[in-house]
Amino acid sequence: MIDTHAHLDACEAGPGEVLARARAAGVDRVVTIGTGIDSCRRALEIADSEAGVVAAVGIDPHQAATPEAGRLDELRELLRHPRVVAVGETGLDGHEGARTLRDQRALFDAHLALAEEVGLAVVIHSRDASAETAAALEPFRGKVVLHCFSEPDLLVPALERGYYVSFAGNVTYPKAQALRDAAVRIPADRILTETDSPYLAPQPVRGRRNEPMHIVHTLAVLASTRNETEEELERRIEENAATAFGLPPT
Q1: Burial 138-150 (b: 16+ CB within 10 A, else e)
Q2: Are 212 and 197 in contact (CB under 8 A)?
């Protein structure tokens, strides 16, 4: 099983401990996400030292109006690392960063240009910015992964453009019926799952720090929602992740 989006550098326990628990739960591959240059370097250190871990590197939108956004040349260098499989996370956040949306868009566009330059998928963060995100992505022709899908208004562009759609623990919450309805409509070859560890723990462990081992709860809810077996959905997600991120088959 794969967790396609986790922040291993932000987990309370060390990556070795977190990954040992994940493997015991059947999660043997993780895409760890860098959210700034120092975070990206740590993500790559983890990917270099831990079996089954690869990395996505980027500068997240919350740092778009900070000096971190001026480190794109360093990000370009990090993208050459052999364990890097995607650019991001990047995108737009109108909830926590409404006053910096112009800066976020400039940083987002720079990430998209880098993704096209290196031929990697781009991992998208979008919150309270669905129309703006769809508009920014419209000219992009590479692979798109909508991480922690939480904006049903993005569903139509995602379906029309063939984006990968990744669901996190929030799809398991009792009030998240709109997300579960969206999950039913995602084509079998475009659905992904993630934990977004250490955030958004799924309902059975809600309130705790999240870890990759908890992805089993999200998988179970998605399988039930889509009227599939967990084994079948797990197989599909493994195949989709391999295609999206260029991973070797298990």
Answers
A1: eebeebbbbbbbb
A2: yes
Strands (E), the chain: 2-6, 29-33, 53-57, 84-93, 121-127, 144-146, 164-167, 191-193
The DSSP-derived string for 190-213 is TEEE---BTS---GGGTTSPP-GG
Contacts by residues 229-234 (CB-CB < 8 Å, ≥ 24 positions apart): 233/191, 234/1
Contact 11, 229 (CB under 8 A): no
Q: What backbone torsions phi and psi does residue 124 show, to the nearest 5 degrees? A: -105, 130
> Which residues sit opposite 35 in a β-bridge?
none
| Ramachandran bin of 151, using left for φ above 0, alpha for ψ from -120 to 50, beta for the remaining angles | beta
Nearest residue to 47 via CA among 32, 58, 25, 57:
32
Whether the CB-CB separation of 163 and 191 falls below 8 Å is answered with no
Q: CA 131 to CA 133: how far, in whole Å?
A: 5
pTM of structure: 0.96
Give the N- to C-terminal CA distance of the chain in Å, as an integer.
9
Chain segment 142-184, per-residue pLDDT in tens: 999 999 999 999 999 999 999 999 999 999 999 999 999 999 9
Q: Give the ranges where 93-195 is alpha helix by DSSP (H).
A: 101-118, 130-137, 155-161, 177-185
What CATH fold (topology level) applies to the domain 2-245? TIM Barrel (3.20.20)
User: Mind listing the pLDDT tens digit for each residue in 107-151?
Assistant: 999 999 999 999 999 999 999 999 999 999 999 999 999 999 999
214 neighbors 205 (Cβ within 8 angstroms)? yes
